[in-house]
Design brief:
The structure is a homodimer of 246-residue chains.
Chain A (H helix, E strand, L loop, with lengths): L4 E7 L10 H9 L2 E5 H7 L7 E5 L4 H13 L4 E5 L9 H8 L5 E6 L4 H9 E2 L5 E5 L7 H13 L3 E5 L9 H9 L8 E6 L7 E6 H4 L8 E5 L5 E3 L2 E3 L8
Parallel strand pairs in A: 1-4, 1-5, 2-3, 2-4, 6-13, 7-8
Antiparallel strand pairs in A: 8-11, 9-10, 9-11, 12-13
Helix pairs in contact in A: 3-4
Chain lengths: 246, 246
C-alpha cells in the first residue's frame, strides 16, 4: 500500500512555455492541482486551463510543501512547480525532507532547463567546460561558505555561474564576489549577464570581470564568469572544450 | 545581408523524446537537415520523419560542424543536435569557433536537460545547493587541471557531478578521482550513480564515497558526490538547500 499517491515536482524552465519539456507539460496536464510560488504559477496558468492553482508567497516554502502533500492525501493529482529545474536551488530537496512525514506519497522529479543553461544559450556557449553554480544568497548559507567556494572555484579555473547575484538587501554582494574572484581570475576574464531569461524583457551583456564588478544586476539576473580560456567571439561568450589544440 | 542563414544548435535532453523542450522539437521540425553523432541521431530519428540525417563518428566534431555550415550555405535549414544540453560539454562552443569562418551564418542555441539535471531527478535532489560539473576525460584537458578542480571543489564542500567518469582507456579514473576527493570529503559522503538516464536500461544506485571508489561505472554513467550535508532519505540522495536550520 506504500507509495500509492504520487506528486510531480516539476521544473518549468526559465519562463517561456516552449522551454518546458514534454514530460513537464504532461505532468501538469495530468494534474488536478498545481502548487507554486505566485510568480511561477502566473507563468504557466494560461496554458493549463481548468486546473486548480494554489500559491504561497516567497519564504513560505515549507508551507507550500505541506500544502502539496495535504492536497495529494485528499486524492488530488498534484504538481509542485519551480522555475528552471526543481532540483537546482528548487523545491525537490525540501519536498523529500517534508515528505518524511508522508511515507505514503511518492515523488517524481521532472527535470527542466535551469537558468544556467537557459542563460548560457543566450550568451553563446560559456559553460562548455567544467563549471560551478554558486548562489550569492546568504539567507540559508553563511557568507564564509560562499566566500570559500568563490575562492576555490576561481583558483581551480572553473567557469562560474552565479545565481541570486543581488537583492535590495544584498546590493553589494556581486561586487564582493568579484573582488574575491579577482584574487585568482584576470580582470580581463570574459563575463556575461542575462536578465529575464526566456521572458519578456530578456536582456544580455558581455563584459570583462573588471566591468562586472561595477555592473548593475538584479534578482532576475544570472551572471557568468569565464575561465582563463573563455573568449568573446563576435559578441558571444564562448568557452573552448579543452586546453589542448586539436 | 549578415546573418541571413541560421543554424539551430539543439540539446535533445538525456534521451527520451519527452525530455526534449518544445523549442527543441520546433527547431527539429523546422529543419531540413539534422546533423549529429550517430548515437544521438538514432535517438530522435523516428520522431522526425522526412528529415535528412547526416552523421559523423565520435572525435570528428570539427568535421561535423563544417558539415552543418556547408549544408546551411546550400540553403538548407539545419539543426546540429547534441545529447543533454548543447552548451554543456556539447557542440555549441565548437560551432562558434568554426563559425568564425562563416560570418553569414547565425547560431541559435536551444538549451536542453543536461545529464546532471536528468540524473539528479532520478536520484532524488542531490544538486539543490552549489555544485560543480567536472569531466574526467583528459582527452582535451591535462589531468593536472582535472586534479586541481577535484581538490578545489572538494575543499570548498561543493556537490560534485562527474561526467565521463570512465572509458576503456581510463578505467581507473573514477578511483583516482575518489582518492583526491577523499582528501577533503568524508568516506561516508552520500554519492549516487545513474546510467542510461531516460533511456532503456536506466539504472541508479546510492552509496558512500568509500563505496563509489570501487564501483563499476561506464561511459554512460553520471556520478554524483554529495556535500557534507547531503543525506540519504529512504534511498533518495537529498542535499538540503542551506546550512542553517529554518
Amino acid at each position: 500500500m506504500n507509495n500509492e499517491i504520487k506528486i510531480y515536482v516539476v521544473g518549468i524552465g526559465p519562463g517561456a512555455y516552449e522551454e518546458m519539456t514534454g514530460a513537464a507539460i504532461s505532468a501538469l496536464e495530468n494534474s488536478d492541482v498545481i502548487v507554486g510560488y505566485t510568480v511561477y504559477v502566473d507563468l504557466v496558468k494560461e496554458h493549463f486551463p481548468g486546473k486548480a492553482f494554489l500559491t504561497t508567497p516567497m519564504r513560505k516554502e515549507v508551507d507550500r510543501c505541506v500544502l502539496a502533500f495535504e492536497e495529494a492525501k485528499k486524492g488530488q493529482i498534484v504538481s509542485m512547480i519551480c522555475s528552471g529545474d526543481a532540483g537546482v536551488y528548487g523545491m525537490a530537496g525540501l519536498m523529500y525532507e517534508v515528505g518524511e512525514k508522508y511515507p505514503e506519497v511518492e515523488l517524481e522529479i521532472v527535470p527542466g532547463v535551469t537558468a544556467a543553461l537557459g542563460g548560457a544559450a543566450v550568451l553563446g556557449a560559456p559553460l562548455i567546460h567544467d563549471f560551478c553554480l554558486i548562489s550569492l544568497s546568504d539567507l540559508l548559507t553563511p557568507w564564509e561558505k560562499i566566500e570559500k567556494r568563490l575562492l576555490g572555484a576561481s583558483q581551480a579555473d572553473f567557469v562560474i555561474c552565479l545565481y541570486n547575484p543581488s537583492s535590495r538587501k544584498r546590493h553589494d554582494y556581486l561586487q564582493k564576489a568579484c573582488d574575491l574572484m579577482l584574487q585568482y581570475k584576470s580582470p580581463d576574464t570574459v563575463c556575461g549577464t542575462v536578465a529575464n531569461i526566456a521572458r519578456e524583457g530578456e536582456t544580455s551583456q558581455i563584459m570583462t570581470l573588471k566591468e562586472l564588478r561595477d555592473a548593475k544586476v538584479d534578482m532576475f539576473t544570472t551572471v557568468f564568469v569565464g575561465n582563463s580560456q573563455t573568449k568573446n567571439i563576435n559578441g558571444k561568450m564562448v568557452t573552448p572544450r579543452g586546453y589542448r589544440d586539436v
